[in-house]
Amino acid sequence: MVTWMVDYFYNRVLNVITKYTVNRHYESLNEETGGMNDVLYRLYSITGDSKHLFLAHLFDKPCFLGLLSVKVMITVFYMTE
């Protein structure tokens, strides 16, 4: 049942990206997504299905990831000095 639901959302998200843009998908994440990425990462750890991992990445909010990557870059910079 769960994997069927993921297949449904996978196809739906890819349809939005194909029909519009990936930015349109990311704009939709401004609404409550209810921890979809966490659920999908956990499902991937159980199934090993790369489709679940790909979809989990699509539910990561770029605005948060951007800040995290800056933090990592700053940390690495100070570690090398």
Automatic annotation (TrEMBL):
Pfam families: Beta-AFase-like_GH127_cat
Domain Non-reducing end beta-L-arabinofuranosidase-like GH127 catalytic span(s) in chain numbering: 1-67
The organism's place on the tree of life at top rank: Eukaryota
Protein name in UniProt: Non-reducing end beta-L-arabinofuranosidase-like GH127 catalytic domain-containing protein
